[in-house]
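Below is one such record:
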Amino acid sequence: MARLPRIRRRNIRVGVIGLYGAGKTVFLTSLINHLRNHDPKRFQLGDSPCRVTVFRELAPEYNLPRFPYEQYRSSLVNERRWPRKTTVTSNYVLAYARSDHPLVKYRLSLLDLPGERIMDLSMYGSSYRTWSRGILRRLQLEEEYREPAEAYLRLAARPTTSEAVLIEAYRQLLRRLFCGYRPMITPSTYLLPAKTDDLTAIPQRGVFDQTFVGLGPDSQFAPLPERTLSQNRDLEKRFTQRYNAYVREIVRPMANFLRGCDSLVILVDVATVLAGGVSSYHGCRELLGEIIGALKPGDSGLPSYVLREGTRLTGDIVPGADSLLRLAIPHINRVAFVATQVDRVHERERQKLAGLLKDMTYDLIDARKEQSWGLQVDWFACAAVASTDSKQNGMIQARLQEDKLDNVIVNYTTTPVPEYWPEDWSPGDYQFPFVRPSIPLRRDAPPRHLDLDRVARFVLA
């Protein structure tokens, strides 16, 4: 019997973002592995059995570097360690077909961004003065930032403070925030240089001698209060010019890439947020709010009432035309909030992590749903590379990351996961050990996962 030609093409762009250490690289590596070597029994993409056939890998979009899938998988297999952090924005594109949609040829583009860059999204669409106002308000009003910011705030309030002193004081403030696990490190070039071809330029924890709060040593800027700016117009002009150049080179391309995606996957390591105490919760929630506010999921650039009426009328005149109209106007129409690394807790408690993530983010995204055009949102508990086994007696079995002996399997327990976020808690009240990756040596054998296919079904729908 002759094979039917594929008469439709469907392009899907997925942006994967998350806080530092949330597991973006592992998530993408496992997803690509499962698509390239698809087993419908282990990775279900449809309501009925469906097999994915990858035709070929395509060139990356936007002149971005290719996501180094093979390198990351090799480090998981051969070195038994998690891949190194993402340092550049990268892209992976492949063409595939699905047995349940025989007339459609799919083109999937996966976008990976360094977690540090996400912290700059508050600059998108904001002037230097507006950005300064927001940063300073947080430093002044929020308890976990107020104490480390005292010295900088005093200097910034004096219009006579020199530029060099201000820059150095702000760098020292960001160092204290980073070492205290506070997420508000912006400009992100303090953690990740603007040009990251030289990996030796990326600082180790607490060592920042070669990084800058701007595009380079002569392009640095810091947030300043209105009074200081009004009394030092030359400094305001210099900082504004440097800020605008930073937004143009770093922030705007990143935001435009993400806003052009069909689906957005936001990864959060909820277990680590719990382990970090209430200040970790506050920082994570604030950053997620800034991501949603900057990217505006569901926003097509047209008034929502125009889109609602347009889809209603086109759907009435030509059945199905409303769906085509939605596809014709690029915008983020699906958001998946994913609690990652859930294999670090016992299987009985994993869905609690998704519940906690929903509690943290529901009101942040709900306002977007009210203003948007067909935005779909869901929450998931996922382990892209499941590396533990849960026992009936409540124990967890795995190779712990902190153990020097790679092959020693231990049995242990973790702190119980709460049903709801506590009202107050301290770092260390909750403990969830990190584990070593467990992945097949055979390259065409994808790793065991926990509900990675559920996330894929949602974002690839």
